[in-house]
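@channel sequence for tomorrow's demo:
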Amino acid sequence: MTDMKFSSRYLASIRAGAIEAKWNAANTRILRYMVDFWQKDLGLHKQVSAPEIYLLKIKVQELMNRWDKMADDHFHKSRLAASKEACDALTVEAVSKLDSLRKILVKTLTVDDRVDWETLKDKSPYQGNSNFSEPAPKLASTAKPIYIEPVIGFWAGLFGKRAAKLAEARQFHEGKVLEWEKSEGNSLSKYGHALTEWNNRKIKFKLEYEATKAGFLAQQDVQNSKIDELAHGVKTGDVRSVIEHANLVLDASDYEGLFEKSYEIDYQADPKLLLVEYELPSPNTMPTLKSVRFTASTGDVKETCISEKEQKSNFDLACYQIALRTLHELFEADEAGNLDAILFNGFSTAINPANGKNTRSCIMSLLARKAEFLEIDLSRVDPKSCFKSLKGVSASSLAALAPIAPVMEMNKQDKRFIDAREVIAGIDTATNLASMDWSDFEHLIRELFEKEFAARGGDVKITQASSDGGVDAVAFDPDPITGGKIVIQAKRYTRTVGVSAVRDLFGTVQHEGASRGILISTADYGPDAHQFAAGKPISLFSGSHLLHLLEKHGYNAKIDLHAARKELNLR
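structure tokens (generated this afternoon):
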């Protein structure tokens, strides 16, 4: 993001590499880059996120284009004088906005909502300057001296001095020629040296240009290949790709500045169910202006707004259209057949008049089957009736913001996680970690790494105990460079850890989409385990490492493998 240019209209809090981590229904951890974006003149704010930097750039550019148009319209209105023409223009605009509210659904029916992957690719030519502008050096040369015949006077000739005069002139001329030849040699030498250096600089410039161009084109190819990978992922039903495809579809949906879109999307691959949690506009942000009238005699400007009843009716109509429009766009764009159904939960945030605080409520919910939905002629339906016929749930008046129980809720938590309990405070120098209870050992590891990651805002969750008594925690490190999702497996072993445990961890890291894995054992690792881990995103913590980490955080314990084997009746 650091190479993007923003005008003074914008304020961007860019976290290039900042990662937001969320679980989807398929228990896949999704990492997303984020940027907080403000339009200072209009007071607009939006948090833009994407799983890849190149997609984040595309989304930010689209947002800037849309906000630029809104800002231009805003400044155009502010420059209009308080005159009849200006008021008439404002009236036309007000009527147009109210009309747009009634056409939210109809407008999308003429739009092809399928994603054109090629348009997302960067095909711009390299803009670097290929012309070496430094002028070539010039040879500083002078004309060769010309011999000038001396003028011999009458008396010099009479007394026999002619020959001497001629000899003197020739000698003088020859001296000048020698000086000229020496000077020309020096000039030619300097010119040759300067020309060589100039040619070297020209060659270096050309090589640097070609290298920079090649780097630009290579980076362009990398970014474009990610578009191809995303398109392939959508075709094969990859969960992350399906979610990002849905984001692209809804991001491209143009509501002509009526409100700012915001939503969360999840996907369940097995039932082919897309879950959309949509932030509906607030009733108090909907267009209400009906006309603007200019009184020439007084110079006053009078604004007329629609009635409160009309405002509520418009809000309801807009929300029902947004729900149907969202379903239509996502189903139409689903060329790969990844969606059999879509859950749409619509939320609205508004000021609660009872306490003056913002209240967010789910006010509409609908689970729509693709086969049934595609049979509907959306150009002829009444949005509310259509919503209800699809068994959508909502209060009689959406404007009342009455909360309803969703048909289904988006699960944002990994069901494998269990409640943590404190263990670490109870250990002391007499505690033999190698003979601890399996469950206590898992919670000890979670607590220890929670303290390790706490300084940078990390989080550690423990999962349900596995059959081998091992794993078993997942850490989320927000560090933009070294962080991400980290799988932690704990092995309370009394014998040397072999390569199979390391191999299992590496498979788990790949399956979970984690950035790295950490294997912790009370024992040491065999050479084959170290050899397998070399060059892979895996860290091996032996018993001594574990004790050192405990000491770092102010705790002392011991690891006595012989005593543990005896206590656990192991040979």
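heads up for whoever presents: Residues 15-21, 466-471 have pLDDT under 50 and may be disordered.
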